[in-house]
Amino acid sequence: MAEWIDACATDDIDEEDLIRFDHGDRTFAIYRSPNDEFFCTDGLCTHEQVHLEDGLVMDYVIECPKHNGQFDYRTGEAKRAPVCANLGTYPVKVEGDRVFVEI
Amino acid sequence: MSSSKSRMAGIVIIGAGECGIRAAFAARDAGYEGAITVVGDEQTLPYERPPLSKPDASGAVEKPITSPEILSEKAIDLKCGVSATAIVRNAHEVSLSDGGLLAYDRLLLATGARSRTLTCPGGDRAQVLRTIKDANAIYAAAENATKVVIVGAGLIGLELAAELRTRGLHITVVEAGPRPLGRNVPERLATRLAAKHQEEGVSILCGVHIASCTDRGVELEDGRFLQADLVIAAVGVVPNDELARSTGLTVENGIRVDGQLMTDDPLIYAAGDCAAVRTSEGNYRRYETWQNAQAQGEVAGRNLGGGDASFDVPVWFWSDQYDLGLQGVGDTSGNPTVIRVLGDGAEILFFLDDIGALAGAAGLGRGNAVAKDIKIAQRLIGARVDAGLLSDPAHNLKKLLRAA
Fold first, then answer.
1. Among the listed residues B114, B110, B129, B128, the one whose alpha carbon sits nearest the alpha carbon of residue B304
2. Edge to edge, what strands does the sheet with A26-32 contain?
């Protein structure tokens, strides 16, 4: 059952960047947009299960560090080959200086 | 032939690898509504080749590029196990190995390349790596082998060396050139990779030539004999340009095309490993990377569908060996202008041209440590950049991107 988890501080993530967040045996990516919004997706690229943590965030797009597949991290939508399956996304809320994800 | 009939013939793509399939998708995504037929000589669904040098415990990983459902949804007709035997240009037709004829309005040659083989006596004993069949043959042979000789210290040779060494085999890599990875990896990074191989127990011999291959191993021209129960030739590829040549298109180490990937015949395009593309300096260059196959496939696909796209993406590549990840983009020949040293042994080499614009970059580090900076470098190619800021690991390269 999904529950709200205190994942990190807002300052742990640079603007237009992401960090990896591991919880239990699952791994996620938490993003901070150029407009200071926060988002959360699955951590692994749907193409070859490479972790997105070393990927490049440009605007609202995360590019996989290995094979350049791209996703819109707000919706998880696959945007560029070789990826064709979408990423799962998870609700995020900010309380004070903490980021919570519902996973 | 009436024009209405010829319009109905649609697009024909010869070659169902990465490039051909991307081209078919790109034509469809650009709004092309006619028939699209892709002809491929392998029996299986189109698959990715990069994983072939990165097998799992059960052998080569066959990772399809697409599925029958996606092809059907996009109304792309894929003919597997069929090759094109001739192009009849005045009839706008391709003859196929199954006896069929395919009419085209526009034709794409995405015929790829094949592995170069060893020309010495016994050279046909060496396995090559290009197809899923090749990969499975190599990994099956490796099961019963103890000593392996790999001819060629390029990316494929060294990736296989790393993979087979990790399985505990005794590996010797022999290279005719003066250093490993001499063709496309900056010397500083090539030296580090070679050192890693040596540390793992792989011997790399440079400046040596093969005299013959026997069932016991490889004889070198200097008289040495290297015992091996598996010999692999990783000595590059030859473009599959014979079909183009036989129909009178200009071919010289690849099918010559302009910046829109059009051959001398305005109805015929070529893209991917088989294409030699005219550069802005008026030379012709052939690129052999996976990303190039995708990028050129997309350009060709749009143009087949009536577009006017140009190929100008800087070519990018990667290689994984042991725990190290190498990535490069653009022109990384000559000496690096500036080096950006990141933590944990990761570093990025930047190559600036004589007006201070970024020409290329290459990086090596553990895992994907260099990926982000190389991606930013890819977007900075052609822009003037401050060498001092590139060398400062505390300076986020994204700031240069915003300034460029």
1. B110
2. A17-23, A26-32, A38-42, A89-90
Spell out the domains of chain A, with CATH numbers in brackets.
Answer: 4-98 (2.102.10.10)
pLDDT tens string B35-49: 999 999 999 899 999
Cβ contact A54–B369 (<8 Å) = yes
| C-alpha B150 chain-centroid distance | 19
Structure confidence at residue B3 (pLDDT): 41
**Residue B32 and residue B40: Cα distance in Å, rounded?**
21
Quick one: which of B122, B130, B184, B131 has its CA closest to B149? Answer: B122
CB contact under 8 A, B372 and A84: no
Residue of chain A with shortest Cα separation from B325: A66
Question: CATH says B323-403 is which class?
Answer: alpha beta
Q: CATH top-level class for B3-114+238-304?
A: alpha beta
Query: Domain B117-233: what homologous superfamily?
Result: FAD/NAD(P)-binding domain (3.50.50.60)
Q: What is the pLDDT of residue A84?
A: 84
Confidence of residue B312 (pLDDT cuts 50, 70, 90): confident
> CA-to-CA distance for B1 and B113, rounded, in angstroms?
34
Residues of A with CB below 8 A from B396's CB?
14
Task: Give the contacts of B289 (CB within 8 A, at least 6 positions apart).
Answer: B315, B316, B317
| Residue boundaries of the structural domains of chain B | 3-114+238-304, 117-233, 323-403
pLDDT at B388: 94
Distance CA B75, CA B72 (A): 5
Residues of B with CB under 8 A from a CB of A: 22, 25, 48, 50-51, 63, 65, 70, 291, 294, 316, 318, 367-369, 371-372, 375-376, 396, 398
What ipTM goes with this model? Answer: 0.89
Domains B3-114+238-304 and B117-233 share a fold: yes
| Sequential DSSP letters for B100-160 | -EEE-SEEEE---EEE----STTGGGSB--SSHHHHHHHHHHHHT-SEEEEE--SHHHHHH
Parallel, antiparallel or unpaired: strands B203-206 and B210-214: unpaired
Give the pLDDT confidence score for residue B4 in this predicted structure. Answer: 40
